[in-house]
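**Sequence with structure:**
===
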Amino acid sequence: MTVDSPQPAVQRLPGRPRADSPVPGARVRVLTTADRLFYDEGVRVVGVDRLIAESSVTKATFYKHFGAKDTLVLEYLAGRHDLEAAELAALVEAHDGGRATLEAYLDVVVARVQTVSFRGSAFANAASEFSDPTHPVRVAIAEHREWLTGEMVSLFKAADHPLPGDAADDLVLALDGAQVGAYAGDAIAAAASLRRTAERLLAA
């Protein structure tokens, strides 16, 4: 704000629409509701009727946009993937070199797993509810993990790690453990363990 501004800019809470913003469309409402309920409570336990009720849509509208619940689950995971991809891309853009980006990424993860709203990895949680590895949901989760591992390989290469593939595998598994440990046990201990693992990998 400049000195000669007549009044300060209006501040809004993140994610809260403007007073004059239009009500989100039906499809967006369903996706927003699904993201909240699937992550907080699980995929299988949340039924279509509840999704419809909490999204304030009709059953016909729900099936028009998604066709089946599994389609909505796939879109939920795609949305989570897109958020992670955008977050990592922003870190790559903001930091110089693979090591700095990896350290910044770890900072983000460590902070996230210690929040009261953290419920573990959305992808690991969903995987535990679909036993068939050929199910489209499991395929989408596997593709997300391949993407994450590939991104970590690129960052370790940029950091001149002698074995970037091995380091990436180790870090992804450490991320898995930290997310489970943070939710099911001691979040502070899980975060500290993740940092120690990352430091050992970066020191190689």
Remarks:
- Residues 23-67 form a domain with the Arc Repressor Mutant, subunit A fold (CATH 1.10.10.60).
